[in-house]
Amino acid sequence: MSENHLYRAAIPKIPKAVQPLWSVMIPTYNCAEYLRETLASVLMQDPGVEMMQIEVIDDGSTRDDPAAVVEEVGQGRVEFYRQPQNVGHIKNFQTCLERARGKLIHLLHGDDRVRIGFYHKLQSAFEQRPDIGAAFCRHIMMDERGHWQYLSELEQSESGILDRWLERIAVKQRIQTPAIVVQRDVYEHLGGFDSRLSWSEDWEMWVRIAAHYPIWYEPEPLALYRMHSNSSTERNTRTGENMRDIRRAIAIFQSYLPTVNSDWLAAKARENWALDALYHTVPKLIGSRDFQAAVTQIRESLNCSHSLTVYRKVIPLVLRLGKYWLKDRVVSRLQFYKVGHETS
């Protein structure tokens, strides 16, 4: 037996007779300012307490009071559970799965939203194909103020089962958590999120599910994922933990992939993440003058992949970084001399 099960908490079975269809589980941590929007987006589509469990699972928030928001917006309809102490987002997700009672589980971050039609469209997917492990829709990336930034890639033009999905999801993270619904039976079979991961645990889970079940896709963008400066993504980017965790995830799920091309798929995944950092993350960090974080991302990108394509992108970025660094040093030195001259 693989040692992977040691890092994935078991999801207990529950009597089928007491299951509602839906469990909308909302993990929160210091994001109560957005929770009103999240809850409102679900309650607008609420089919009733017999059909849908709605529960907020708070990881010991210290800067706000999600319980008050639940009471205000939920009006007794939304359940609330607070961790006795901060346990971290992986264990908080685990608590969500353990407390979920529904046949279909939707993990919806407390700062994300769903659009009208989300639950109806994805419920229809499971009705048409009861054998699928999960169904997801196209998602919209929004900023801190809720302004739409861009759409995720269109995977196929029509609703239905995705072809060769395991190979596609293995080389690139294509799903944001609020966009996907998973059968509880699947979590019971495969276990919870992998505790060895700190940032890419969702990607590893979607690959794991794709290795065992057909996956349904809904091309209509019905979920919204919020990007903001206080997110774990931003923090992990500055330290390079995002790229280190990506390498851990790929090492874990490579064994799920078809043996004939698992090495190629793993190498392609590492290259794709390296290029994503070099094309998007590093220029943004240089533009904001966060040179140390930019250097960290370049170094971690090269640790991911030594492909010629990656090196071709690294070289101009290093030159650009040197140019900005030198410019800042010169400006700083001139200001130093100017202040010294004025005070002498």
What does this structure look like?
The protein has helices at residues 32-43, 66-74, 89-99, 118-128, 165-171, 184-190, 201-210, 232-239, 241-253, 262-287, 291-304, 308-343; strands at residues 22-28, 52-58, 79-82, 104-107, 113-114, 134-142, 148-151, 160-161, 180-183, 215-226. Strands 1, 2, 3, 4, 5, 6, 7, 8, 9 and 10 form a 10-stranded mixed β-sheet that branches. Helix 7 (201-210) packs parallel to helix 9 and helix 9 (241-253) packs antiparallel against helix 10. It is globular, with a radius of gyration of 22 Å. The mean pLDDT is 93. The protein has 12 helices and 10 strands. Helices cover 48% and strands 16% of the residues. The longest helix is centred in the last third of the chain and has 36 residues, at 308-343. It folds into 2 domains: 3-228, Spore Coat Polysaccharide Biosynthesis Protein SpsA, Chain A (Alpha-Beta Complex); 233-334, no CATH class. With 344 residues, it is an alpha/beta fold.
* Low-confidence runs of at least 5 consecutive residues: none
Q: Mean pLDDT, nearest integer?
A: 93
Shape descriptor reads globular
Gap from first CA to last CA: 76 Å
| Structural class category | alpha/beta
How many helical elements? Answer: 12
Largest sheet: 10 strands, mixed
**The CATH homology group name of the largest domain:** Spore Coat Polysaccharide Biosynthesis Protein SpsA, Chain A
Strand content: 15-25%
CATH topology of the largest domain: Spore Coat Polysaccharide Biosynthesis Protein SpsA, Chain A
User: What is the domain total for the residues?
Assistant: 2
Number of strands: 10
CATH architecture descriptor name of the largest domain: Alpha-Beta Complex
